[in-house]
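User: Structure please.
Assistant: Input sequence and predicted structure:
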Amino acid sequence: MRLSRYFLPVLREDPKEAEIASHRLMLRTGMIRQEAAGIYSWLPLGFRVLKKIENIVRREQERAGSIEMLMPTIQPAELWKRSGRYDDYGKEMLRIADRKEHELLYGPTNEEMITDIVARFVQSYKQLPLNLFHIQWKFRDEIRPRFGVMRGREFLMKDGYSFDLTREDGEHAYNKMFVSYLRTFAAMGLKAIPMRAETGPIGGNLSHEFLILADTGESQVYFDAAFHEKDWSTFELDYDDREAVAAVVREFTSMYAATEEMHDPERFEREVPEGRRVSGRGIEVGHIFFFGEKYSRPLGAKVLGPDGNEHYLQCGSYGIGVSRLVGAIIEAGHDENGIIWPAPVAPFHVGLINLRQGDDATDAACERLYEQLSNAGLEVLYDDTGERAGEKFARMDLIGLPWQVIIGPRNVKDGMAEIKDRATGARENVPLEFVASVMTERLAAVLS
């Protein structure tokens, strides 16, 4: 993509309304624009990141055997009345009526609707197990929306739902999602620590939330530093192998990790050696629940079992805050100059900077390299504008692409390009003919 033809409305000054880094940087880089309190338009740069995250989530859900579908944003109130949650949910639920005075709501989650769908179409244990998910916009009327996409009213979420015959089958479905979430966040370059959690308005008695560390996190967390020492990049296993999946869950839940609400100081000191005790702030990016028959009973979701009797389905739900992750990743990765994107979710892989637009030799070298990098499968943002070098460097650091390739008249004369690693600031000179192969090698994990 040529920057001269791209829509990137970068702001020169920090927005006054932004209280945390992610909100400030998302507004400054032109990723989002606020339309109302807690409601944003996603501009091209932000939308690219959103889709990268969404695609990783989708890929890992499908690997774990979950099937994608799509449910509407507007739901009939009658379903929520049947489950008993319509009055319990409170003012966060946006309640509306159509022209025929039918009571509707803008869905904050989909347990009722998906359970009703399954109740209508699944009658036999032979149709189980079943795990369905969708990636859909939600709305919760926060009393005080703040921090940009971290606590907005409209947000994009992956919510998935499992349906099984027995509790043992249901717990295996829960364990599969536990492992899938570890894989999902690791694929984004994150270590999201699983912590035992309250079930809240979803219900049930088994729940874990996944948190990444950031100074501006909403939760105080306490955990064993051994989490940081683990290799989170490899969880290659057969999801149908119950023992292998359960072993991963046992491994991660055997180490101490708790939010302030679930923290036990005495147990923390007893189980975790002093040198490994870590406390800090965490941002929730995922939450999983197993709640058995909580929704299947009131909504009539039951099947004929192998014993000839009817059984209410054992259910769980599994959420990932897709739009929230954009802000959370920025909170976990930025410096005084701007964003530092992990390569898997970066809007572009490489920023190509032409230091002397209009110089024939420099333009020609940049054009050749732009074509080579693009043909190698890399996503390139080519700064072909006529602005000063300082402005180009500052903007490229601000938007935080993993790699910068810098070319000016002096580089071209020497047959070299300068390569900068945004995360470390390290720079090196590479012969022009090798730049594409070097970049491809360094981004191989993303391109595979």
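The longest strand covers residues 277-292.
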